[in-house]
Write a structure and sequence with these properties.
- This protein is mainly alpha-helical.
- It has 18 helices and no strands.
- Helix 6 packs antiparallel against helix 7 and helix 14 packs across helix 16.
Length: about 290
């Protein structure tokens, strides 16, 4: 059988390719990954995943440039399968292997690879430094946004990311990309973030406060908005929020208010000191959902 004959393969043939212990099946399926036929390519993707063969997982990442968005979505639903393969390729001596691993980690949110990824993030002169920073920030932004906007605090991928990033932040709080990745990944109710902001003596405290005070990144504004409505927010952080002048901050505050909370939070807002972000605020300058306008 050749890769071309997979175009007419029956369901029985695919099942045999998935279950046989003959390694030739893996080789055949890998060749099929370059097929121009979507059906053949996805059949090979599914079969290689079903085989649970470490070499098959490795080859799936090494053929990353063959996939379209639907292929990547299929792989994303099985992302946990590729942790060891991604780590192995990142540790490879081949630059091409490393690049494919970084692309896969970025698209599939393989947060278990953060420790190896950080080697390149911290090596400013490494050829993969920029790609590794992009990978780290992309994962942090995507998973952090889901937690803050959709309330998905219990995502295992984000929990792994936050745990690993916390360790990196404690060791490398002077590295701006680490600070930014942390602030884009966390939620205002994360215990690790709360502990850091309650401890002015901590080495990371000033870096976090400085970034929150000056950043106009949506993630930073979402965090500040969440902290504004929390009665347990430290006074120093509340003062920072009051002084932040970006009007987008108030939009993020409004997004967090449900109909049930509206009256009580309006009272809280009236009792608050003046917000700099409300100075000369003009709703007509923003495109917002009707629920936010209320």
């Amino acid at each position: 059988m050749t890769a071309n004959t997979l175009e007419i393969a029956s369901p029985k043939t695919w099942r045999v390719l998935e279950t046989t212990t003959n390694q030739a099946a893996t080789s055949l399926l890998v060749r099929g990954l370059s097929s121009p036929s979507d059906a053949v390519r996805r059949g090979c993707l599914n079969s290689l995943i079903a085989r649970k063969d470490p070499e098959g997982f490795r080859q799936l990442l090494l053929n990353w440039d063959q996939y379209d968005s639907a292929d990547i979505e299929l792989l994303r639903s099985n992302a946990r399968c590729f942790v060891n393969a991604a780590r192995s390729l990142l540790a490879s001596d081949e630059m091409r292997d490393k690049k494919f691993a970084l692309a896969a980690i970025t698209e599939l949110d393989i947060t278990d690879s953060i420790d190896i990824l950080m080697e390149y993030v911290l090596s400013r002169h490494h050829p993969l430094h920029d790609a590794a920073c992009y990978c780290l920030l992309s994962m942090s932004q995507r998973l952090g946004r889901d937690s803050r906007v959709a309330g998905r605090l219990d995502s295992p991928l984000r929990q792994t990311l936050v745990k690993k990033l916390h360790g990196e932040l404690l060791r490398h709080c002077e590295i701006s990309v680490v600070v930014k990745a942390w602030l884009t990944a966390v939620h205002w109710d994360d215990g690790a973030q709360r502990s850091l902001l309650l401890d002015p003596s901590h080495s990371a405290y000033l870096r976090l406060i400085s970034e929150l005070a000056t950043s106009n990144d949506p993630a930073a504004l979402q965090l500040l908005a969440g902290y504004f409505w929390r009665p347990t927010t430290p006074p120093s952080l509340q003062a920072l929020i009051l002084e932040h002048s970006n009007p987008e901050l108030f939009i993020e505050m409004a997004k967090l208010v449900t109909d049930e909370q509206l009256d009580s939070l309006l009272c809280q807002l009236q009792l608050s000191a003046p917000l700099a972000c409300l100075k000369n605020f003009d709703w007509s300058s923003f495109k917002v959902e009707r629920s936010v306008e209320r």
